[in-house]
Amino acid sequence: MATYSPLTEKLIQALRVLPGVGLKSAQRMALHLLERDREGALRLADQLRSTLSGVSHCQQCRLLCEADICHICSDELRNQRQICVVETPANLSAIESTGIYEGVYFVLMGHLSPIDGIGPEEIGLHLLFEQIEQRQVEELILATSPTVEGEATAHYIRQKLDAKGIKITRLAHGIPMGAELDQVDGHTLHHALQSRKVV
Amino acid sequence: MATYSPLTEKLIQALRVLPGVGLKSAQRMALHLLERDREGALRLADQLRSTLSGVSHCQQCRLLCEADICHICSDELRNQRQICVVETPANLSAIESTGIYEGVYFVLMGHLSPIDGIGPEEIGLHLLFEQIEQRQVEELILATSPTVEGEATAHYIRQKLDAKGIKITRLAHGIPMGAELDQVDGHTLHHALQSRKVV
Ligand SMILES: [Zn+2]
Ligand SMILES: [Zn+2]
Fold first, then answer.
1. B88 has a chain A CB within 8 A of its CB
2. Domains of chain B
3. Distance of alpha carbon A41 from alpha carbon A38, whole angstroms
4. Chain B contacts of A124, Cβ < 8 Å?
5. pLDDT (tens digit, 9 = 90+) per residue, A153-191?
6. Are B103 and B82 spatial neighbours (Cβ–Cβ below 8 Å)?
7. Which residue in chain A is spatially nearest to B92 when comparing CA positions?
8. Which end of chain A has less neighbouring CB within 10 Å, N or C?
9. Is the overall model pTM greater than 0.80, yes or no?
10. B15, closest residue in chain A (CA to CA)
């Protein structure tokens, strides 16, 4: 016999869209919501709808935001000719909190990962290259994480821009290999940013 | 600065109703849905709504189902005077698949856990005791899992029914201590059910 009723089974399947959630976790989640937190489950349903309809990408830097252009890109005090490429919003925040960067960003929302079907288009590189053509960009800081995928992504971008004559830099060594950028302490990150090098 | 836009932040918080999902997991889930699977996220929102509105408890055995009385309780070939108490639908399925049990069930949907605020009412024991008063129940099989919480729950039920003169049994030894009932092989469970003992 089936262990769960048809509608419960459908919820279990629907929960598996969440990353890292397998069958057993989805079953535990469905039962928990149905048994112990129906209110929270309805709030989640509502919030999924309103966040999905309200949030899109900043048309310039790809940061998830409610406006067409995010608060960083629309800040007139920032240098639009200096772009720092990061993998995630968390990494952007980490750099912002050093307080020394005055350019703008480009957020990849991931990194190249051919196995998962994530190519240049999926991380928005065509938009980055368009911007480099259109604006007079002076420096591109490749601040992807020092992981295999982050390095490969930086390498790909550098190769594509080889003939353009733009100054391309990477954060200085000092960041531990294999670490996530947003877990690095502020002092190290501050130092790494200041001693960035042309590559 | 805030790392995520206000609506993204709200989704991250809403996702934390899911058991086992902390801040980091919720952030990863929100970004994944917004970046890579908006369709799946909308399906999840819809399914949460329809499952929550369509699924309630069987009024007799508490199994989650779409009808007032589930397909097991409404099966006329089953012995309504024999009730097997289990913790979860998965455990019910495990017993069903032995093919030798012809009574009905009572599904606790958990076990006593005072630390988590789960007392007798939360696992529906008042409904079980009502049914034992109303129907002429001949045997109550306490098939809770052989874990600390499962044993404590069985102990509580047995104590409450001490003076009622009902035959109360537990599954025979043979189930490994500390194991989840639905992970025990069919042969062992078959044997344990057949050699159940009055307690
Ligand atoms: Zn922006
Ligand atoms: Zn039932």
1. yes
2. 6-54 (1.10.8.420), 79-170 (3.40.1360.10)
3. 5
4. none
5. 999 999 999 888 899 998 776 666 666 777 777 777 776
6. yes
7. A3
8. N
9. no
10. A44
